[in-house]
Amino acid sequence: MGHQSKALHRKPSGGADKSGAEMFGMIPPSWRAVNFQTSRPRSLGLNRFCVPYSLQLLSGSRGMASPALSQASTAFESDAPQLHDDEKSQRRAIQHVKDAATSQDVLLFLIAFRILNALSIRTFFQPDEYFQSLEPAWEIAFGSNSGAWITWEWKNQLRSAIHPTLFAGVYWVSVELSKLLQLTPHNHAELLLAAPKVTQAVIAALADYYTWRLGERMYGRGSNEAWVALFLTVVSPWQWFVSTRTLSNCLETTLTIIALHQWPWHWSLDATGDEETDQYGLREDPKPDQVKELANSLILATSATVDRLYYQQWTFPPFRFLYFNLAQSLSVHYGRNDWHYYLTQGYPLLLTTLLPFALVGLYQSLFPPESPPTQALLTANIRRQLATTSML
Fold it and tell me: What is the pLDDT of residue 303?
């Protein structure tokens, strides 16, 4: 808490859119109007079969149509596939808009909820929520003589500077905004305190959002299981207490959930149809190797450049971190947990009263039915891999 008060006294050295309720929810009159209009092709779909037959009945007792009536019948029949395709296109467009409205509403709610969460938290949890991010960020933004408290981890180059650089940018934007609005020193200090919290709240909201999206990918769009997953992450006491703190682990959690959502889980299933496979019978990545190599190179170059600018020399913090903690085993000076820590303490702390349900879910994921339905293969595969990873 003393650290937080210290930040208060620091001085840097240098047409309207429709609301979510209108777009989705209790379907408003505007949607009912759209649905009414798009239901008209259904009657046309019936008429396109009835009208030609009626024309033939009117042509004579033997059903011989006149040339004019035959041409009309042929025209109607040729238009039938186009009308059917138009109806399907309209339905897909409406469903796409409704799905987009739902996703937008959920994301905006989660951002507002986590901002309230972040601004409501007034407690101290771990030193790392300051020393992993805000202290080095303060130094990056305002210089080495700004009074930042830099711990031994940074002096030994054990951490990457990418995470604090994010909050250094937040500090810089806050200072410029304060100048633009001509805030008083007190309000300026309050802005410097609130800006990192709001930033972390958005990061936490993205974790909640992609948890829901991952649930939809596993169990289907709009499924009850996906909504329950969203509900559980929103009402989780642990998420409320930790997710909006500026720990590097919180950002890592969000990035991991996004990666799990984007991961091509279907690759681990047997190839079907004309899908290309490699020599081991696995699906081939549709992205060219050059694209993947370029993306990996850009990420590595960005990380190396940021660390070079912060440490003023070329270094690779992940390697130094592993060497310090594994090869030299110097981390034991700061404590050691029992081998069963995560099972006996970690999961109960994170899950609280949801622990029994989580244990049942883990068991069902690790030991699914021997012959699951074809449509459930992907869901069972994702659940099994996530459960296995969770137990490591």
Answer: 92
Angstrom distance (rounded) from CA 46 to CA 38: 14
Average pLDDT for the chain:
76
> In whole angstroms, how far apart are CA 363 and each of 218, 351, 356, 386?
17, 16, 11, 12
Per DSSP, the three-state class of 285 is coil
* Cα 21 from Cα 18, distance rounded (Å): 8
Residue burial 363-388, b: 16+ Cβ < 10 Å; e: rest: eebeebeeeeeeeeebbbbbbbebbe
Spell out the alpha helix ranges (H) of the chain: 2-9, 20-23, 29-38, 40-58, 67-120, 128-131, 134-142, 152-155, 162-181, 185-219, 224-235, 237-242, 248-262, 289-311, 317-322, 341, 347-351, 355-366, 377-391
Q: How far apart are CA 326 and CA 329, in angstroms?
A: 5
pLDDT in tens, 225-249: 899 999 999 999 999 999 999 999 9
Element (H, E) at 184: none
Using alpha carbons, select from 151, 150, 154 the residue that is nearest to residue 138: 150
Flag whether pLDDT at 41 surpasses 50. no
Predicted confidence (pLDDT) per residue in 72-90, tens digit: 445 444 555 555 667 767 6
Residue 31 one-letter amino acid? W
**pTM as predicted:** 0.70
Alpha carbon dihedral 218, 224, 225, 230, in 10-degree steps, equals 100
Q: Are 14 and 142 in contact (CB under 8 A)?
A: yes
Any long-range contacts for 380-384 (C-beta under 8 Å, 24+ apart)? 381/265, 381/268, 381/269, 382/217, 382/218, 382/265, 383/218
CB burial readout 49-66, b (16+ within 10 A) else e: eeebeebbeebeeeeebe
- Exposure b/e, 132-167, CB count within 10 A at least 16 = b: bbbbbbbbbbbeeeebbeebebbeebbbbbbbbbbb
* pLDDT score of 58 more than 50: no
Pairwise CA distance, residues 269 & 315, whole Å = 40
